[in-house]
Design goal:
Fumarase C, Chain A, domain 2; elongated; binds arginine; two-stranded antiparallel ribbon; 4 strands; 456 residues; Ribonucleotide Reductase Protein R1, domain 1; Fumarase C, Chain B, domain 1
């Protein structure tokens, strides 16, 4: 085990199994870069308050920058002997500048570092998530404009309901993703990044010292004066908020995936999926399986689970910091990484889908799709109370199904047994996709836009 940040108080060595059990270096190394940011800001504050000389400060910062460069160039390999990323970086500084390193941790605590690191990680990742989400959103808008004039079948209870435009359907997802994007924006607005909590009680450094020379433009933009140190080291609601936003986004991705699985199958055959994202069967030569979509649908379990994990970990935790909170990282990293991968592929996947227009046109001949239009005609044109109209059309549909007849082939004399105001000429005008869609005037059918695609 590498040198600990807290060894002196203990007479006995730490139990080896416990030591392994308690480590977080195997995952928190992902925060290395942000931990260096914290250190550089902290060193500046120490110089500003004359605890370090200017010279000591710049030497420490140059060592920290060396390590930062290794991280940025992908050469940083975490030392898995260390307890966590904070100890790892401290040890590295010690190797490069043994005497000075002893002053780096002055008046600070890992409790303050970890929450800072995680918040800056979130700032960075949310920017990336926002970009990827915009690509998926744009792909949907592109598909909508490609099939702008096409009709589609609308379902409720997975049963044929009414005719809609394909755009009515596909743009529904654009609206959902737009709200997901807004939730990411709100997340950033709520975040609040601060330094100076100490372990929980603050430190004797003046708050202004932390604001003077802030490292990284991103942090500079978001660094706020610390309002309450107890809250800062105790709270992880920002992680819950992000995982919640990602869980909702995941739910939308999963529904889109399920729709495409269903509509592309033989039972519907309305969509053709892009081959480069499908797989075959080792036994059945004909298969073209929608594995990407199934995995997206399946990942919902993990993404929801991650949210539940952190909610449950935080429930009932006494203030302030508790080691339980170390376990927030795996769910956070897991959800962020999964959703990023899904979005990246989903944008390309959507670009590759095509509508099987002939099959859709055939399905649109189903007269049940126009039953509601007939009832509406009786109400709006003939002033019949809706429940009477509903009843008449219901009987008409049942009759047509039992006798296996087309309503549009029925004589007026037959139609009028269901309602005297029904006639074949009027029905012909009503029972088609053009009428069914053009008669719906309550919808604005606005193409959504995502404004300002800078998130952080
Ligand atoms: N590995 C810890 C975490 O992720 C860092 C903070 C440790 N603080 C402490 N007092 N042990 O939460």
């Amino acid at each position: 085990m590498a040198k600990k940040l807290w060894g002196a108080r203990f007479k006995k060595d730490t139990d080896k199994d416990f030591e392994e059990f308690s480590k977080s270096i195997q995952y928190d190394y992902k925060l290395a870069q942000y931990d260096i940011y914290h250190s550089i800001i902290h060193v500046n504050a120490l110089v500003d308050s004359s605890i370090l000389t200017k010279d000591e400060g710049s030497r420490l910062i140059s060592v920290l920058r060396q390590i930062l460069r290794e991280i940025e160039e992908g050469e940083f390999k975490p030392d898995l002997e260390c307890e966590d990323i904070h100890s790892d970086i401290q040890n590295r500084v010690e190797k490069k500048a043994p005497k000075l390193a002893a002053k780096l941790h002055t008046l600070r605590s890992r409790n303050d570092q970890i929450v800072f690191d995680e918040k800056v990680y979130c700032l960075n990742e949310v920017e990336e998530l926002g970009k990827l989400l915009t690509h998926t959103f744009d792909a949907i808008i592109g598909k909508a404009s490609q099939y702008e004039k096409n009709f589609f079948l609308g379902y409720t209870h997975t049963r044929r309901a009414q005719v809609i435009f394909f755009n009515d359907y596909i743009l529904a997802y654009a609206h959902m993703f737009k709200r997901d994007y807004r939730r990411l924006q709100c997340f950033i607005e709520n975040l609040g990044v601060s330094i100076g909590s100490g372990a929980l009680a603050g430190s004797s450094l003046n708050a202004k010292h932390y604001q003077k020379v802030v490292f990284s433009a991103l942090v500079k933009k978001h660094l706020a004066e610390l309002e309450n140190a107890v809250d800062n080291v105790s709270s992880r609601d920002f992680i819950i908020e992000l995982l919640n936003t990602l869980a909702i986004l995941q739910m939308h991705l999963s529904r889109l995936a399920e729709d495409m699985i269903m509509y592309s199958g033989k039972e519907f055959e309305f969509l053709e999926l892009p081959e480069e994202f499908c797989t075959g069967s080792s036994l059945m030569p004909h298969k073209k399986n929608p594995d990407f979509l199934e995995l997206v649908r399946g990942y919902s379990g993990i993404i929801y689970g991650n949210l539940m994990a952190i909610l449950t970990t935080m429930k009932g935790l006494p203030l302030t910091y508790n080691r339980d909170m170390q376990l927030d990282k795996t769910p956070l990293f897991s959800s962020v990484e999964i959703v990023k991968k899904e979005l990246k592929i989903m944008a390309e996947f959507i670009k590759g889908i095509t509508l099987k227009e002939k099959n859709i046109a055939k399905a649109l001949e189903d007269e049940c799709l126009y039953a509601t239009e007939i009832a509406e005609f009786l109400v709006t044109e003939k002033n019949i109370p809706f429940s009477q109209a509903h009843d008449a059309v219901g009987r008409l549909i049942r009759y047509a199904q039992e006798k296996e007849l087309k309503i549009q082939n029925m004589q007026d004399s037959v139609l009028k047994t269901f309602h005297p105001d029904l006639d074949s000429g009027a029905l012909r005008l009503i029972m088609n996709p053009e009428h069914a869609t053009s008669s719906k005037r309550s919808i604005l059918r606005k193409v959504p836009k995502i404004k300002n695609n800078k998130l952080r």
